[in-house]
Specification:
This protein is mostly helical and 127 residues long. The chain is 42% helix and 8% strand.
Length: 127
């Protein structure tokens, strides 16, 4: 007998981010196109990082956008935003927010769209 998969629980993301929905103290979220890369300190700390933080630093050996990280790790976009800000503050990630006037490059937008399409829905199904 197969069990149907219900909607994704909001409890796990709430616990992972300690209830926070934005990463920085100013109440702003990182744009999805923000590029993130692990620092030497972050890579050296991998064995001391817990779960999602470990996975984010590990996947960021090469620059990744916030959207790409969420898609690759199958994490909620806001969870990645909050944890990436925490990791940046701890010196474990370097963050580059593209200048809003420069984001007209179609290849960047295509990569963001592809990353978002790779994020599974609440049933775990990738479109």
């Amino acid at each position: 007998m197969s069990e149907s998969v219900g909607p994704a629980s909001a409890v796990r993301p709430f616990l992972v981010t300690a209830g926070r929905v934005v990463g920085d103290a100013d109440g702003r979220s990182m744009p999805v196109e923000t590029q993130v890369v692990a620092t030497t300190e972050g890579l050296d700390a991998l064995d001391r990082l817990a779960f999602e933080e470990h996975d984010i630093v590990a996947v960021c050996r090469l620059p990744q956008s916030i959207a790409e990280i969420a898609a690759r790790l199958r994490l909620h976009l806001n969870v990645v935003r909050v944890l990436a800000e925490d990791l940046r503050a701890a010196g474990q990630l370097t963050v580059h927010v593209p200048d809003s006037g420069v984001i007209h490059d179609a290849s960047v937008l295509r990569r963001v769209i592809d990353g978002l399409r790779a994020v599974p829905d609440s049933r775990g199904v990738t479109p």
